[in-house]
Design a protein that fits this description.
Layout (H helix, E strand, L loop, with lengths): L12 H4 L8 E6 L3 H4 L4 H4 L5 H20 L2 E7 L8 H9 L28 E5 L10 H7 L4 E7 L1 H14 L3 E10 L5 H12 L2 E3 L1 H7 L7
Parallel strand pairs: 1-2, 1-4, 2-3, 4-5, 5-6
Helix pairs in contact: 7-8
Protein name: Cysteine hydrolase family protein
Keywords: Hydrolase
GO molecular function: hydrolase activity
């Protein structure tokens, strides 16, 4: 039987409320940007099915509203690239796969790196990264610690890549980490579920959008 996200252990709203105090928690929204999510972005132009991403973004929007209303920190991650900043290892990987030029995504010049549907507001943390891990080569950890953040609630795209790597890195940086399973998505069948399962076994607790919104009740009407 195929692995289903709903069959994995999840923290419910009653238990969650005591774990994600808005004063010490950040909602981390990963890579909701043009090339990963918009029909006119790179993946959309290549014909990738973006419906799972769109459904996850609907949930991310609810989470952002709840976080803002409850006074939790909102942190928006983006991949932001230019030809001169492309990773040597990534370029080599693409060449060896027979895909030279395949690393050219989320470019500043063509708008592929732009935010999509969810946009920063005053007081938010914004992180521009070159690859998958939101902590690598950025000041994300320093910004979180300056605000007294100890817990991260992570959502976004894609579950198997940047959500996964950011969650694992957060755990290695000694944060308590939650991944919102229905507010994250992948682009191929099975990847979302397998990534959630691997993270849950090793470094995160899973929860759902409704549970987070109930744990941050002032955000529901914000």
């Amino acid at each position: 039987m195929p692995l289903r996200a709903e069959d994995l252990p999840h923290v419910d709203a009653a238990a969650l409320a005591g774990m994600i105090d808005p004063a010490t928690t950040a909602l981390v929204v990963v890579d909701i940007q043009v090339d990963f999510a918009a029909p006119h972005g790179l993946l959309g132009r290549y014909g990738v099915d973006l419906s799972p991403a769109a459904a996850a973004i609907d949930k991310c929007e609810r989470l952002v509203a709840a976080a803002r209303g409850a006074g939790a920190t909102v942190a928006l991650m983006r991949v932001v690239t230019r030809p001169e900043t492309d990773s040597r290892a990534l370029k080599t990987l693409m060449v060896r796969r027979g895909q030279p030029g395949g690393e050219a995504i989320c470019r500043v010049a063509d708008g592929g790196a732009d935010y999509y549907r969810i946009f920063p507001e005053a007081g938010d943390i914004e992180i521009a990264k070159l690859l998958y891990d939101s902590f690598h080569g950025t000041d994300f950890d320093a910004q979180l610690r300056a605000r007294g953040i100890r817990t991260l609630v992570i959502c976004g795209l894609s579950t198997d890549c940047c959500v996964d790597q950011t969650a694992r890195s957060a755990f290695h940086h000694d944060y308590d980490v939650f991944v919102v399973s229905d507010a994250s998505a992948a682009y191929e069948p099975g990847l979302h579920e397998s990534a959630l399962s691997a993270m849950e076994k090793n470094c995160v607790l899973l929860t759902r959008t409704d549970a987070v919104v109930q744990a941050w009740p002032t955000g529901e009407s914000a």
